[in-house]
Amino acid sequence: MQAPSVQRSPEVHEVIVIGSGAAGGMAAWNLTRQGVNVLVLDAGTKFRRTQFWSHVKPWEVRERLAKGQNPPQFFLDAKEQPYETDPKNPFELIRVWGRGGKTNVWGRVSLRYSDLDFEGPALDGWEIPWPIRYKDIAPYYDKVEQQIGVCGGDDDQDSLPGSKFHLPAPAPRCGEVALTKAAGNIGIKVVPVRRAVLTKAHNGFPKCHFCGACGKGCDISAFFNSSDYLIEPAFKTGRLKVVDNAVAARILVDESGLADGVQYFDRYTREEHRVYAKRVVVAASCIDSSRILLNSKSEKYPNGIGNSSDVIGRYLCEQVRFHMHGFAPDLIGGKVYNDDGIGGAHIYMPRFNHRKGGEWAGPFADRKRDYLRGYGSQFWFTGAQPGPAWAKQIPGYGASFKQSVKDRFPALISMHPYGEVLPQRYNRVTVEGTAKDRYGVPVAKIEYRIGDNERKMIRDMYEMAEAVMKSAKAEMVPFQRGWIDTLGSAIHEHGTCRMGDDRKRSALNGFNQMHDVKNVFVVDGSAFTTASEKNPTLTILALAWRATDYLAEEMKRGNV
Amino acid sequence: MASRRDVLIAISAISSALPAAAAPVLSAKELQLTMTLTDLIIPRTATPGASDAKVHSLIEGLANADSAFARKWKAVLKAFGPADPAAAVEKGFRSQSAEFKILKDTTVDLYYSTREGLSTELGWNANTYVEEFRGCDE
After folding, report:
1. pTM for the complete prediction?
2. By the 8 A CB rule, do A284 and A292 touch?
3. Is A203 exposed, middle or buried (0-12, 13-18, 19+ CB in 10 A)?
4. What is the ipTM score, two decimals?
5. How far away is chain A from the Cα of B28, in angstroms, using its nearest Cα?
6. What pLDDT digit, counting tens, does each position of A299-356 carry?
7. CA distances from A40 to A240, A242, A270, A366, B102 (A)
8. How far B122 CA sits from the closest chain A CA (Å)?
9. How many CB pairs lie under 8 A apart between chains A and B?
10. Is A398 in the B-facing interface, judged by CB distances under 8 Å?
C-alpha cells in the first residue's frame, strides 16, 4: 500500500544520476551534451563562491567567527548522517554533501594510473584482475586533462604515464628543490606534481593567483570542481535538472528486475520522494553508493541490487600514509618566501619500488620485496606555511625557543608517502543490523583493517622517507616509526562495487555497468578493482566519461 | 600548504578559542598568571610576545567554550603559580610535566595563529594575490 506521505513524480527521466561530485558531474555533463535528459539528485545545494573564505587570514577567521559569521560548511557532520565503525579499528569517513561534492575542497592531485596498476592483480595474483588496461582509458585521460586543466611536467615513466596536455608546472619551493635533489642523490626520481590547478587561463576559467587557500574553496574557480566545470555547463544544454537536498536511499526496481527509479528523502523536511527513470547512474561516492546499493533490497535482490556475487560492500580499499617532517639545513635562518603557490606540493615521487635495478630504482635496487604493490609520496606542507604545529616539537621555551621557531619557519620539508592497501573480502561496508538514520534508512557500518602486506610496505615506506631526509641532511621533527594516519583519512575509498570480467567475483563489467542489472551504472571510486597508491579523482573522471559514452551508445542502440 | 584536513582542523581550533563573551572562567588573578606564564613561553623580544598577541584572552575564550580545557588550564595555573612562576615553569620543563606540555602547546598553537605571531614574528605574508609564482627563484 502506498504511504500517504510519499511524493511520486509522474515524469520518467531518461537517466537519474545520484551525486554531483567528480563522478556524478562527469556523468551529467557527458550525457547531456550527447542529447540525453538527466536528473541529478544532489544531497546538498550549491556552495556559493562569493561566500568562500579563501582570502581570510588565520586571525581574521577568529574575528569573523566571534561576530557570528561562518564559512560554507563543506564537510558533512557525522551527527547528521552517522556511520558505524569499530572503535578499535576506526575508519574516518569524510563526506561533502552539496554541488560538486568533495571537488570543492579536494587535494587536486591528478595522476594517471599505469599498467603497473591495471595489470598488478593479474601479475601477482592477488584478487581479481582489472577488466581494462591503460590503452582503454588513455584516450579518456587525454580528454579529461584537456577539459579540466591539469598542470604537470613532461616526465613519462612506467608507474606514471606522461601527458602532452599538461599546463605549465608551478615553480618548486626552496624546500622542494632540496627534497628533489636529496631523493635524486639516492636514486629516487621526484617529478613536478600533476594537479588540476590552472597555471594559465583554460577553457574560460581564470589562472590561479597563487593564494594557496584551495582547502577553503577557490573563490575564482581556478581549480577543477565539478559544480563549475561540469554541472553548470550541463545546465546550459537545457537537458539537466537537479533536485537539491535529495538524500538518495534506495534504487527502485520493476517486476523484471530493472531499475526504474530512486527513492530519496528531503534532507531537511525528511519527506519521502520517488522519482522514476529508464536508467540510473550511481555516483554518491564509494561508501554512500555502497550504502544505497545494499539498502536497495527487493524480492529479486534480497542482499542489495546487483549483488548476486556478494561483492558489493566488500573489498573496501583505502590507502595507508604517514607524515614525516624535518628542516633543510641550508634554509634554516634564511629568507621567508611566500610559499603558497598552487596549494599543496609542487613535486611528486612516483612509485619506484618495483624496479629491480637500473635508473631510478632507488634504495630498492637488487632487493627482493616481501610484499605486493607499492607506494608514492607527496610533499605538502613544505616551506613557510601557516599553522606551524611543528613548533611544539622544538625543544625549550623562552626567547631562544622563539628564535629557533623563527629560524626554522622557512626551512620545513615534509614527506607524505601513500601506500596501496590490498583488497580483502573482510574489509567491507554493511547495512545489516545497523542504526537507522533520520530518514529511517540503515546507516553504513565500515569494517576495515590493514594486514601483513601493508605493515611490511609501511616499513619500507619509512625506510625510504628516512633515507631521503637523511640525504637532505634534515634536522628531523621527532616521529614514531610505524605510526600511520587514521585509516580513511586519505579520503580515497575504493573497491566496494568493483568491476571485473568474472561476474561471480565482481559487480560491474568493464564499462561500469552492473552485471545483474543492465540499466544501472556505478561510476565513482567504488568501481575500482584495486586502489593503487595514487589519488583517484582523475581516474574516476576518465572512467565516468568512458562509462557514460558507452551508456549513450547503448541507449542509441536500444540496448538499455 | 595545509591540506584540506589541516584547514578544517585549524578552523576548528581557532573557532574554539574565540574571545570570551560569557562570564569569565578565569579570575583576574588567574588571567594575570596566564599572561605571565604564556610570556615565559614566548616572551616579548624585538617582536611581540604572547601577551602582546593577547594569547591570555584567547585562552580565556577557549576555557569558556570547553570545560575540559578549563579544568586542564586550572591545573596548569595551580602547578606554576602563584609564588614563583619562572622557577616552577623551569622545573616543569626539566621534568617535562604534563602541565608544562599543556602550557607550551596551547601558547604555541594560539600565538602562531595571531597576526603578531604569524606575520610580525615569523614573517608570513601570504594568502594574497600573486601574478606569477616564482618559487625558489623569486
Report:
1. 0.95
2. yes
3. exposed
4. 0.90
5. 22
6. 999 999 999 999 999 999 999 999 999 999 999 999 999 999 999 999 999 999 999 8
7. 7, 5, 18, 52, 49
8. 5
9. 174
10. yes
